[in-house]
Amino acid sequence: MTPSIPKVSPPAAAAGSVSIGADLSVHRLGFGAMRLTGAGVWGPPADRQAALKVLRRALELGVNFIDTADSYGPDVSEEIIAEALHPYPHGLVIATKGGLTRPRAGQWERDAHPAHLRAACEGSLRRLRLDRIDLYQLHAIDPRVPLAESLGELARLQAEGKIRHIGVSNQSLAELKRSQALVSVVSVQNRYNLADRDAEDVLNYCEQQGLAFIPWFPLGAGRDASQAKSAIAWLLARSPVVLPIPGTSSVKHLEENVAAASLHLTAAELRALG
């Protein structure tokens, strides 16, 4: 009899899983694709082949959640994801965002008018070569546009089958509750890390509501390999709804970040980190 070969879980799976809505589950260590662009999140990367390798290696390591936005590049990050990974493997969730524009390098402007959001979503569908985006996030509230109009357009896109789930980003707790009253929100993406916990109330609320919380700038507390791993491990330990998305343009750094999925901080280490 030929002995069976034990199935080995990929490294990213060591962090467990988190639900995005009622029908999607991903490993709780994702990848943020913002840094696969040029300097200042503008234009193409200096080494396009290296960017493609990072994405392909992420999948090999078990990462099955990739976060991007049409404003990264702009357009560049989404195009590279499709170039590297299409046709996409079963179970891969690609999340993108709309609502910020890039008139020029170094400039980010809000535009959450319904017409812009529709054009942004349809542009993301083309670049990502998708018929439907699993998670489409309002990148930021536009103070010139009633929130009901912005989210109402996303709801229409959802009804048309172009969006599976709606998420929000850069929202206060009060804004999140307003958003929930308008559409079914499954995730929140806010800045949050070991050194910056201003969104603590939003995270606590997400845990109560069963919403995925996607912290951007998750490595704010550390830049070398050991500090980065500890920062990611702390986020993973903070709450079961946290889905870190550390980004990098280096395969080596990617592998170091994913290794944090199996790093379990002791109670004493967690107390020391505060």
3D architecture notes:
- Helices cover 36% and strands 18% of the residues.
- It has one domain: Alpha-Beta Barrel (TIM Barrel).
- The radius of gyration is 18 Å and the shape is globular.
- The strands form three sheets. The chain has a seven-stranded parallel β-sheet with strand order 3-4-5-8-9-10-11, covered by helices on one side. The chain has a two-stranded antiparallel ribbon with strand order 1-2.
- With 274 residues, the protein is an alpha/beta fold.
Series of H and E elements: EEEHEHEEEHEHEHEHEHHH
Calculate the terminal CA-CA distance, rounded to whole Å.
54 Å
- CATH class term: Alpha Beta
How would the global form be characterised? globular
- How many DSSP-defined strands? 11
Q: What is the CATH architecture descriptor?
A: Alpha-Beta Barrel
Q: Report low-confidence residues grouped into runs of 5 or more.
A: 1-6
Radius of gyration: 18 Å
Helix proportion: 25-40%
| Number of domain units | 1
What topology, given as strand order, has the largest sheet? 3-4-5-8-9-10-11
The CATH superfamily title: NADP-dependent oxidoreductase domain
Average pLDDT rating: 94
CATH topology, anyone? TIM Barrel
Structural class of the helix and strand makeup? alpha/beta
Largest sheet: 7 strands, parallel
- What's the tally of helices? 9
Beta-strand content: 15-25%
